[in-house]
């Protein structure tokens, strides 16, 4: 999702311009949360990032569009998009009509089961038009956009899930491992995570690939990076070595390397880009 919204979610920075709606109790294992954010008209272009939770991002109307720019191409998405996996150097530019977005954030295993997708679906196309998924799963985007209020949109999505979904199959050990990685904010090695889970690496790798669509190392890297990113953009005085070490990186060069991979820019270049 746009990283400026993910930042608010991670830090719990909610107000009338950006807030969370909890899913109904019976769907808590499927949906992490519903979110509504007003777009800052001054920031027309945003980095896309995923912290491990797949999302659906609905624009304000079915006719609104965004331009998605990756390393090698730019394409247009209309109405809504889905994103997951490890997203590297991808930016989204809004058209002038969208003032608000509605986001559904899913638990990964539930998302892939709900839409009958292989967990590797997003590996090479981490940002994709939702219509490509919806049309194969009887989700009517047209009917969704007929919902007049946020509460109606929430009800529409929840009704769809309740009518479509039967049960979630996420191994308990895998869920416990995900919770552990979140708790330590990615400040760990794959070996330490494997030891904590009490399983061998091959089992963990197989489970992550099947249910999350990422390797354990990739998932840990996402958590480590997003927390380092939050510290960077929240700092008045940027000290890259301090930020790197405090977030589990070996040194500032390793942080710089990750930052360039995920954003296409150095930290200072990115901060200048954000300030415009």
From TrEMBL:
Residues 175-273 form the HTH araC/xylS-type domain. Keywords: DNA-binding, Transcription, Transcription regulation. It holds the Pfam family DUF6597. It comes from the Bacteria. Gene3D superfamilies: Homeodomain-like (1.10.10.60). InterPro entries: AraC_XylS_family_regulators (IPR050204), DUF6597 (IPR046532), Homeodomain-like_sf (IPR009057), HTH_AraC (IPR018060). The keyword Transcription applies. The keyword Cell inner membrane does not apply. GO terms for molecular function: DNA-binding transcription factor activity; sequence-specific DNA binding. This is AraC family transcriptional regulator. The lineage of its organism: Bacteria, Pseudomonadati, Bacteroidota, Sphingobacteriia, Sphingobacteriales.
């Amino acid at each position: 999702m746009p990283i400026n919204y993910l930042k608010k979610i991670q830090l719990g920075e909610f107000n009338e311009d950006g807030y969370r709606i909890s899913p109904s109790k019976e769907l808590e294992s499927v949906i992490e949360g519903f979110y509504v954010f007003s777009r800052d008209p001054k920031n027309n272009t945003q980095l896309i990032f995923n912290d491990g939770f797949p999302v659906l991002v609905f624009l304000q109307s079915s006719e609104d569009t965004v331009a998605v720019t990756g390393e090698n191409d730019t394409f247009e998405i209309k109405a809504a998009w889905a994103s997951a996996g490890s997203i590297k150097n991808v930016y989204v530019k809004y058209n002038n009509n969208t003032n608000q977005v509605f986001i559904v954030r899913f638990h990964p295993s539930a998302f892939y089961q709900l839409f009958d997708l292989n967990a590797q679906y997003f590996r090479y196309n981490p940002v994709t038009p939702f219509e490509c998924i919806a049309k194969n799963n009887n989700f009517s985007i047209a009917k969704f956009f007929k919902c007049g209020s946020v509460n109606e949109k929430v009800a529409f999505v929840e009704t769809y899930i309740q009518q479509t979904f039967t049960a979630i199959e996420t191994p308990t050990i895998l869920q416990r491992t995900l919770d552990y990685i979140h708790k330590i904010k990615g400040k760990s090695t794959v070996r330490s995570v494997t030891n904590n889970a009490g399983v061998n690496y091959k089992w963990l790798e197989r489970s992550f690939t099947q249910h999350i669509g990422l390797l354990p190392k990739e998932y840990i890297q996402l958590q480590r990076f997003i927390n380092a990113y939050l510290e960077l953009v929240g700092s008045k005085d940027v000290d890259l070595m301090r930020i790197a070490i405090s977030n589990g990186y070996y040194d500032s060069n390793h942080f710089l390397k990750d930052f360039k991979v995920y954003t296409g820019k150095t930290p200072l270049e990115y901060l200048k880009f954000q300030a415009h």
